[in-house]
């Protein structure tokens, strides 16, 4: 029987790399996106019966729960959850537009919180599984152009730390991934060479390696940066 992975925000960037990696390893793979066209393009590119897609805006609690119910209706057991959905808006607290904080908290934090809670009973029933959360170097480093994004990612790392403490005695692993600048559409328009970024495939390979470890071992946090360090947005 194929194992099951749930990857939020899997139509591009790190999420897409993760979808490809886990399908290549034989996992029944569920993912979502706000855009039906993006999911259709993903399905056409991958062309695998292991891929199951669902249109959902995970900044909305009801749509997050609908995605979880879609997964559970087709797979009684979830082996891996990767909370990847999120977006980046550069700015500063002192001059950001109104509602930038709310929008990034809803997408970057609440989506992970509500999706994890909805799927957690499946992990607890089997007393096993692995939950990954895509945080950021912005979860531990304050950037002058980070603004509300940094706030949301600091909170996301806090969520992951709490989850780790709650679940460690239940056989469920929890890992925070903290990537630096990764070559994804978030950086479109930035005049820098690809060599200045982390390839998204490297993030996917790292997560797969962490998943492969013995049941008695967990990587709690994985910090990944470009060889030349963080990119200065100033």
UniProtKB/TrEMBL annotation:
Domain of life the protein comes from: Bacteria
TM region(s), chain numbering: none
The keyword Lipoprotein belongs to this UniProt entry's keyword annotation: no
Keywords: Oxidoreductase
Family label: Belongs to the short-chain dehydrogenases/reductases (SDR) family.
Molecular-function GO term, any one: serine 3-dehydrogenase activity
InterPro entries to which the protein is assigned, alphabetical: NAD(P)-bd_dom_sf (IPR036291), Sc_DH/Rdtase_CS (IPR020904), SDR_fam (IPR002347)
Record's GO cellular component terms: membrane
Gene3D superfamilies from the UniProt entry: NAD(P)-binding Rossmann-like Domain
Enzyme Commission (EC) number: 1.1.1.276
Pfam families: adh_short
Protein name as catalogued: Serine 3-dehydrogenase (NADP(+))
């Amino acid at each position: 029987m194929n194992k099951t992975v749930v990857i939020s925000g899997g139509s591009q960037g790190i999420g897409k790399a993760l979808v490809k990696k886990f399908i290549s390893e034989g996992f029944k793979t569920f993912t979502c996106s706000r855009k039906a066209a993006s999911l259709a393009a993903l399905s056409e590119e991958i062309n695998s019966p292991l891929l199951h897609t669902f249109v959902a805006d995970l900044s909305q609690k009801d749509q997050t729960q609908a995605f979880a119910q879609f997964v559970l209706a087709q797979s009684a057991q979830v082996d891996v959850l990767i909370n990847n959905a999120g977006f980046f808006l550069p700015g500063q607290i002192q001059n950001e537009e109104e509602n930038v904080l709310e929008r990034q908290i809803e997408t970057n934090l609440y989506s992970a919180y509500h999706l994890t809670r909805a799927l957690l009973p499946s992990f607890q029933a089997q007393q096993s599984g692995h939950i990954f959360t895509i945080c950021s170097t912005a979860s531990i480093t304050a950037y002058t152009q980070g603004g509300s994004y940094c706030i949301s990612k600091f909170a996301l790392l806090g969520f992951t730390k709490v989850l780790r403490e709650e679940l460690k005695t239940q056989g469920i692993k929890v890992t925070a991934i903290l990537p630096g600048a990764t070559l994804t559409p978030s950086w479109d328009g930035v005049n820098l060479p690809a060599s200045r970024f982390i390839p998204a495939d490297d993030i996917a390979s790292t997560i797969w390696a962490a998943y492969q470890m013995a049941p008695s071992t967990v990587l709690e946090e994985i910090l990944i940066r470009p060889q030349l360090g963080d990119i200065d947005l100033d």
